[in-house]
Amino acid sequence: MTHFLPFIGKIADYYTTHYDELKSEFIEHVMPMNKADKPKYIRNTGELLYDGRIDVVAFKLTKTLLDVNELRLTRWTDTHGLYRYPFKNRYPEVYNKLIRWQDFINTFDDTLEQCFFNIAYPKANLSYHYGVSNHAWRAHICFQTNPGFTFNIEGDKKKWEEGMDNSFMFDDGNLSHGVDYEEMNVEQPRIVSILDIKK
Hints:
Elements: H1 10-30, E1 50-51, E2 54-62, H2 68-73, E3 83-84, H3 86-90, H4 92-95, H5 99-107, E4 112-120, E5 125-129, E6 136-144, E7 149-153, E8 156-158, E9 168-170, E10 177-181, E11 190-198
Antiparallel strand pairs: 1-5, 2-3, 2-4, 4-11, 5-10, 6-9, 6-11, 7-8, 7-10
Helix pairs in contact: 1-5
């Protein structure tokens, strides 16, 4: 039995139809802005969630899916707000160029809990952990691969490959998962679009 489930449903159908547009908008407009000056994520245990450079670019975040450290890193001070759109609010001029992403988020705002991007650079590792909540499926869609990275869900291993045919979902809150890196002669980062979808 695999923990890697097929990414299916209306959101997957939309993403399949517009994969090239979504990817090109992100690569063209968002990636050039990406910088390495982000703070390290330290869990309550005192250990780092990741080692090496892993950048996160968030389009939509949901308070109930973030732990206390993530809330601190995102400077979430609004005690009543449930949703936050950090990229749109911080970089409105760039966001206005993301025509397909605007349509995607607006179309599925009711069922799309979170939408963010995980950019892992060579030698980075993600410690094994559980998600904060079990009420959402987490989908991974790869925009750019690096064969050095392996995703491990409770011993079930998979390498990311580009395209919707290689996308998958898993139960983020109920399964332990992490990322290992094996040294490869590939310098490019692995770029994954991550969606949290209400069950």
